[in-house]
Amino acid sequence: MNQVNQHDLGEAIRVSREERGWTQRYLAEKVGISR
Domain count of the chain? Predict the structure, then answer.
């Protein structure tokens, strides 16, 4: 199994989120995560 670099994963999520115009809050709500 490949080890995922947390920074690279976070960057990929950020880029994908921003391309869609989503906020961090909106993405969190979509995946069912709360603070």
Answer: 1
